[in-house]
Structures are given as C-alpha cells and as structure tokens.
Design brief:
Blueprint (H helix, E strand, L loop, with lengths): L8 E4 L3 H12 L4 E4 L13 E2 L1 H9 L3 H4 L4 E3 L1 E6 L2 E7 L12 E3 L2 H13 L4 E4 L2 E8 L4 E8 L5 E8 L1 E4 L6 H5 L4 E15 L11 E5 L5 E6 L7 E8 L7 H15 L10 E12 L3 E2 L2 E3 L5 E2 L7 H20 L7 H29 L3 H16 L1 H11 L2 H8 L3
Parallel strand pairs: 1-2, 1-12, 2-8, 5-14, 12-19
Antiparallel strand pairs: 3-7, 4-7, 5-6, 9-10, 10-11, 13-16, 13-17, 14-15, 15-16, 17-20, 18-19
Helix pairs in contact: 1-4, 1-7, 7-8, 8-11, 9-10
Bound molecules: flavin-adenine dinucleotide.
The site of flavin-adenine dinucleotide (FAD) has 35 residues, from helix 1, strand 9 and helix 7.
C-alpha cells in the first residue's frame, strides 16, 4: 500500500489465533496489518470446545461475555467404555483454580466472527481479506512480505509489504512456516476423522453434552453445540478408514452408517453437518526465525480428541502478543520472543502432543490389559475428588499455562 507508514506487525491468517494477536496488538497501540486469503469468517465445522483456561484469557480480553450467549455452558464431561459409563466429572471441582469452572461449547466460527467484529473497531488494525501471503524474507531490521490479491476483475496481482515482525498464523499448511524453512516434525495418522451433526437428542439416551466413548472398533466423541440456536445439534467425531467412501453423496451414507453403529435406531438420522479431515500430530522445529514467529496450527497440530488445538493456539496468541507488545514498546529486549518460543513449544510437545496422542490410544485401545488399566484409572479418578480435579486441571489446560509461566 503506497504512501502509508508500514505497520509494526504483519499477521498472516485471520483464524482465531491471528485475530487475537491483531486485537491485542491493536489495543496496545501497535499498528497491525492482517492478511487472510479468505473472508476470515469461515463456517466449516471445526473447534467447538473452549476450556476453562482459555475462557479466563478470553474474559480478560472482554470476549467471554460476548460468546457465552452464543454457546452452551457445560460443567459435566462423561467418559465411557462402549456403553459403560466409567466416569462423570464436574468442572465445579476447579472452583478456585479458574473463574470459569465449566467448558463453553461454542463453535470456532462464532468466536472468529466475534473477534473480527471487536478488532474491526480498533483503530490501527488493517484487515485485508482475499489476500494471500505467498512469500516472505527478512533483513536485520524488517520483514518483507509478498501478498497476492484479487484485482477488480478477479485477476491476481502482487504487492510487497514491510513490517518489523511477521506472525505466521496461517494454519496447518502455513506458507510462512515453509518460507522460513522450518520443519513440521511428527506424523499423520493413516485414517481420517469424520464429523457428523444431527438434531437427534442424545440426551434422551442418557448422554451428557460432552462425552468421550472408547471403543476398540470405532471410538466416538459426542458433543452438543448450539449451532444455529436452541435446541442445538449433537456433533459426533468418529474415525474413518481410508477405504471408507468420504466424497460426495457417499460421505452422507458413511455418516449415516457411523451414527447407526453408534446408536442404532429404526429410522435414519437427520444429518445437518458432515465433513472429514486428516489428522496429524506435528510440532514446528522452532516457533521463531529472526523476525518471523509462528503460532497456532502453523506451529502445532494434534488430533481433536481433547479439544486442544484451538485452545492451545489461543494461549500461543496471548503469550506472543504480550511479548511482542513489550518488545515493541521498548520494555523488554528481543529475547522475550525466544521466551515465547521456549514456553509455548514446551506446552505443544510436553502437554498437548502427549495428551492428545494418549487420548487417541485410550479411545481405540485393543490390548485388553491396557484397556482394563484405562478403565481402572478412570474409575479411580471418578471416585477420588483429588484425582478428579488433578485430571481436570490437565484437560482444562490450566496446568499447561502454569507450567509455561514457570519457564524463564
Ligand atoms: C473437526 C475439528 C474439530 C476441532 N475441534 C477442536 C476443539 O473442540 N477445540 C480445539 O481447541 N481445537 C479444535 N480443533 C482445532 C482447531 O480448529 C484449530 O486448532 C484452529 O482452527 C487453529 O486456529 P488458527 O488460527 O491457528 O488456524 P486456522 O483456524 O486454520 O486459521 C488460519 C487462517 O489463515 C488463513 N490463511 C491460510 N493460509 C494463508 C495465507 N497464505 N495467507 C493469508 N491467509 C492465510 C486461512 O484462510 C485461515 O483464516 C478442531 C479441528 C477440526 C478440524
């Protein structure tokens, strides 16, 4: 953009992570430009669970009060082995540890719309939608970012931009991560996950609003979301083998089969949401190269079991924005950004990867000895309040935030 002072920070990607970075920087008086290759407010089914630690952070930003009415407050989470209820945990056990001893079931697109509206009201934040970051480079005192944008008649043209820092919040297939040559270490599971939404009321079959169901043949996560408003829909996440048909009309038939296997009934389920996606466990080799920083899915990916991807991404965003603000205001040296990397990369590997890999193993465990151990552990936790609250401190990501805060 000619004749305009360059922003201090460019953010690539307007998912929840990029939006929070931009919102916090803008509010602190830092000039930001955010580029998104789409329209920011995607509506494909993705994250829907916001954990207590994240609710506290969103509350600090003034976001919680706006999203609570759009979601469902869920204090209870149930763990099953097949049809057998092993444990029912109440987040009320976390009173005193969090201001929000419950989970909010609120879809990611609602959160993004809310954040986008808030950030648009902040002077100093420039949003450029339909504008894709295609390359970046850096010098001692600046980053150079090349974007491709649709012209009036949809022909593409390129622009060059400059800033002091670039934040790559451009998701799993991050071009920023690729441009700075950072490896995305880990693996992709040899199966997909299917997400199926139905207005059928599983509460009538005794399910809570949040349920994890272990099954050696086909595990399930069953969560209620408010969707377009009450009464809401139940969303089932279920694995799909690579040889199961998942395209076009076949996907709908597969979704129906999954629901029927989970809870057989004489009639077809009404299906209002269905999609499938690959699942990976990966962490970027570093979250920083000079003036370029990574956060959210561009820095780490995990399975949806445990609902930690967006939550930990939001924790990255808050930490990164706080550190960048201090650096840009001259209150801290550039090394504060390395502390961000140490803290948040530690959480990605030691907490999120470890927990989500273990969650999947527990959900699909076929070894009878290990399966029994999982059952025994859950039963013990359910009966012992101290074990239950230690368990919830981990699943609610409160432990991970405290652990990170202790890293210098
Ligand atoms: C089915 C499903 C269920 C999930 N459930 C949960 C859950 O319950 N809880 C949870 O915590 N997580 C969950 N996740 C994970 C969660 O969706 C992601 O972790 C989250 O979206 C990450 O946010 P982000 O802002 O880092 O990236 P994204 O949301 O992917 O946003 C990236 C943005 O960058 C833009 N972009 C991409 N490339 C470029 C480019 N080159 N230039 C400019 N813009 C670009 C995209 O348009 C997009 O807007 C789930 C994921 C799936 C698929």
């Amino acid at each position: 953009m000619p004749n305009q002072a360059p922003p201090a920070v460019i953010v690539a990607g307007g998912g929840p992570v990029g939006l929070i970075v931009a919102l916090m920087l803008g509010r602190a008086g830092v000039a930001v430009t955010l580029f998104d290759k789409g329209d920011i407010v995607h509506s494909e089914p993705r994250a829907a669970t916001i954990h207590p630690a994240t609710l506290d952070l969103l509350d600090d930003l003034g976001v919680y009060a706006l999203i609570e009415p759009q979601g469902i407050v869920c204090p209870i989470v149930n763990y099953y082995d097949g049809k057998l209820l092993l444990a029912s945990f109440d987040h009320a056990l976390l009173k005193g540890e969090t201001r929000h001893p419950w989970v909010l079931q609120c879809e990611q697109d609602k959160l993004s719309r809310t954040l986008f509206a808030m950030a648009q009201a902040v002077p100093g934040i420039t949003f450029r939608t339909d504008t894709k970051v295609i390359a970046c480079g850096q010098r001692a005192d600046a980053v150079d970012v090349v974007v491709e944008t649709a012209g009036g008649r949809q022909e593409r043209h390129q622009e060059r931009h400059q800033a002091r820092y670039l934040v790559g919040a451009d998701g799993a297939r991050s071009i920023v991560r690729e441009a700075i040559g950072v490896a995305f270490e880990g693996f992709t599971y040899p199966e997909r996950c299917m997400i199926v939404g139905t207005p059928y009321d599983f509460a009538a079959d005794g399910y809570a609003y949040r349920n994890y169901i272990a099954d050696p043949e086909e595990w399930y996560n069953l969560f209620k979301i408010s969707w377009t408003g009450p009464p809401g829909v139940y969303r089932l996440i279920v694995p799909a083998r690579l040889d199961e048909p998942l395209d076009g009309d076949h996907a709908l038939a597969t979704a129906q089969r999954k629901l029927q296997r989970f809870n057989p009934r004489p009639h077809d389920y009404e299906i209002v949401i269905y999609d499938s996606y690959a699942v990976a466990q990966r962490v970027a080799a570093t979250f920083r190269k000079g003036r370029v920083l990574l956060a959210g899915d561009s820095a780490h990916l995990n399975s949806p079991i445990g609902a930690m991807g967006m939550n930990s991404g939001i924790h990255d965003a808050v930490s990164l924005a706080e550190n960048l603000i201090r650096v840009l205001h001259g209150e801290d040296g550039d090394a504060a950004l390395d502390r961000y990397v140490r803290q948040r990369r530690h959480v990605a590997t030691a907490h999120v990867q470890t927990a989500t890999i273990a969650n999947k193993q527990n959900m699909e465990q076929r070894d009878p000895v290990k399966r029994q151990r999982y059952r025994d552990d859950m039963l013990r936790r359910a009966e012992t309040p101290a074990l239950a609250s230690a368990f919830l401190m981990r699943t609610a990501l409160i432990d991970s935030l405290r652990d990170a805060a202790g890293i210098a």
